[in-house]
Amino acid sequence: MAASFASKCSRVGHSLFGGLGNSLSGLVTTSQEIICSKFLSQQQQQRSFIQMRTVLKVVDNSGAKKVMCIQPLKGRKGARLGDTIIASVKEAHPNGKVKKGKVVYGVVVRAAMQRGRCDGSEVKFDDNAVVLVDKQGQPIGTRVFGPVPHELRMKKHVKILTLAGHIA
């Protein structure tokens, strides 16, 4: 794959600046590097499911900062908006309800993977975020920070919607 990537970058740079003289060789090299870095960043930014070992941001006041997904529930390959996951707390506030290393349940409230809506629009967020819940599905924290999609209503997570400040 690295060889095909290098050949694509060299072809793109060569076709754009092939007719220039030798005096602009530094410009050609710089342009090739820019084109190659853009191509590489587009490949790295392909969106995927919330799957095992995905690190998510916690957007409630339960005490945890970051969690790592251990297993998406419902036996699927990955989790999307509104799905429940089992996660391990990786970073936590010192005086919070949840401590580092604890295994918790969480509901995915923001996902970088796009999701289509009934009206034809799509919703996509910049980060992956989760709200921690107990086994019955009730939130551990009392506040939810940032936007939360209204798709959670269909998944029966109405309590999270009532705690949220902004519904997207």
Automatic annotation (TrEMBL):
The keyword RNA-binding belongs to this UniProt entry's keyword annotation: yes
Listed PROSITE patterns: RIBOSOMAL_L14 (PS00049)
Keywords from the named record: Ribonucleoprotein, Ribosomal protein, RNA-binding, rRNA-binding
Name of one Pfam family that matches: Ribosomal_L14
GO molecular function, one term: structural constituent of ribosome
Signal peptide positions (record): none
GO cellular component, one term: mitochondrial large ribosomal subunit
Membrane-spanning segments: none
Keyword Ribosomal protein: yes
InterPro entries for this protein: Ribosomal_uL14 (IPR000218), Ribosomal_uL14_bac-type (IPR005745), Ribosomal_uL14_CS (IPR019972), Ribosomal_uL14_sf (IPR036853)
GO biological process: translation
Protein family per UniProt: Belongs to the universal ribosomal protein uL14 family.
Protein name: 50S ribosomal protein L14
Source organism: Acacia crassicarpa
